[in-house]
UniProtKB/TrEMBL annotation:
This is HAD-like protein. InterPro entries: HAD-like_sf, HAD_sf. Transmembrane segments: none annotated. Signal peptide: none annotated.
Length: 202
């Protein structure tokens, strides 16, 4: 959904670090992986917590909207969740949906910043596996994920490039208020598009 960076007054060397989202950014959200993860969530809520599959989204959505992260929201809603088991269930089957994308890799390699961190609400273990499937692991310094953030969830801030799409809309990043905080907006993660929207990255 977003790429954020450190910001300083001197724009010539202002952007030193990049925080890059995983879902809907490092891969095309249209590949149905997000739908697959959601279906896994409905099944998890059913098998582990007795929520009927047909009611799972109804229970989940207001918690997600309030807390901007499913695990955090469900725990706040009274669900007793073991994190590793939860993530293993949610992210199972990633290899059926995530494949290398040369265009995204070329973009990441072209960016001059020495440190590029994957910044995601996903667990570090499964985020790293996703990067391996996407052939992007060597493009990143490391991963800042759900395990490290604990009860905190990512949000827009700093210098922000928004990749539009269903994920951005669902997380509230496409509202007029949120868009006003974006320094650039693109519909696809490619070097030409990003150079045009936010040339200061180079």
């Amino acid at each position: 959904m977003q790429i954020s960076s450190s910001d300083q007054t001197n724009r010539n060397d202002a952007i030193q670090y990049l925080l890059i989202d995983l879902d809907g950014t490092c891969y095309d959200i249209g590949n149905k992986y997000e739908d697959h993860v959601r279906n896994n969530l409905w099944k998890y809520m059913n098998t582990h917590h007795g929520v009927p599959v047909e009611r799972a989204e109804e229970v989940w959505r207001p918690l997600f909207r309030k807390y901007n992260q499913s695990l955090r929201g469900l725990r706040a809603g009274g669900f007793d969740i073991e994190a590793e088991e939860y993530w293993d269930c949610l992210r199972a089957g990633a290899e059926k949906y995530l494949f290398p994308n040369a265009e995204v890799r070329e973009l990441l390699k072209s960016l001059p910043q020495k440190e590029k961190w994957l910044f995601t609400n996903c667990s570090e273990k499964h985020a790293i596996y996703a990067l391996e499937l996407l052939n992007l692991k060597d493009c990143f310094t490391g991963v800042i994920g759900a395990d490290m953030m604990g009860d905190t969830s990512k949000a827009m801030g700093m210098t922000t490039l928004l990749i539009t799409g269903p994920t951005a809309l669902e997380e509230g990043a496409s509202t007029p208020s949120a868009l006003s905080h974006c320094d650039g907006i693109v519909s696809t993660l490619s070097e030409p598009a990003v150079r045009k929207a936010l040339p200061v990255l180079w």
